Amino acid sequence: MPDLAFSDPDLAALYDVLNPWRPCDDFHLGLVMPAASVLDVGCGTGALLRRAREEGRTGRLCGLDPAAAMLDRARARPDVEWVLGDLGTAGWREEFDLAVMTGHAFQVLVGDDEVRAALAAVRAALAPGGRFAFETRNPAARAWERWTPDRAVEAVDAAGRPVRVSHAVEEASGGVVRFTETYTGPAWDRPRVSRSTLRFLGPEALADFLAGAGLAVEEQYGDWDRSPLTAASPEIVTVARRP
């Protein structure tokens, strides 16, 4: 089930406000624009594919997401194919030249079987020679240690009302982090709390999972400027190819 932050219409409406266009989006857009057919797995509000259309991208663009509230916002752009569901139910076969998972969506795959099933479905959806681009936070950077209530973010919703968003880690063990995201503001009579679980995989484990799915790492970076991956890098940005 999608987290409350994605499944609740009020919180879904805040997603683009809290996550404006960033260098990560520029990176993925650079891959999307020349690709003949694109699948965005966990597309959310569809910001990436909507921008691609705005910049003149033709051809097939398909966004897949399990959260209906997010897709309701994406569907404001009707010239993109929006699909409610997940990789396990979609069943595409050799239909896309590029698949992407942005916004650290890959990290919601917590169990080994989840990771294997998702990668197998991505490989099946890719045409021979197709590429899969995604990112995960580098576990060596320990980003979750900075997810503390004192680092709350403040924003303004579409109605001009202030919203405060704070995070608190409940458990971090074995590469799995469980945390809460709390929304407060005059729009609600009590705080809205979304609970999430993310997995932090290192480069060696990622390489093993990709190889097991028949995907070969083609490029890997430590940040969106394509700098080399090191222990201090905040990201593990990976582009893999189906041979």
What does this protein structure show overall?
By secondary structure, the protein is α/β, with parallel strands linked by helices. The chain has nine helices and eleven strands. The protein has helices spanning 4-7, 9-12, 15-18, 23-32, 47-54, 68-74, 87-90, 112-125, 203-212; strands at 37-41, 60-65, 81-84, 96-101, 126-137, 153-156, 162-173, 176-184, 192-199, 216-221, 235-241. The strands form two sheets. Strands 3-2-1-4-5-11-10 form a seven-stranded mixed β-sheet, with helices on both faces. A four-stranded antiparallel β-sheet has the order 6-7-8-9, with no helix packed on it. A hairpin with a 5-residue loop joins strand 6 and strand 7 (162-173). Helix 4 packs across helix 5 (47-54). The longest helix has 14 residues, at 112-125. It is globular and about 55 Å long. The two termini are 33 Å apart. The mean pLDDT is 97.
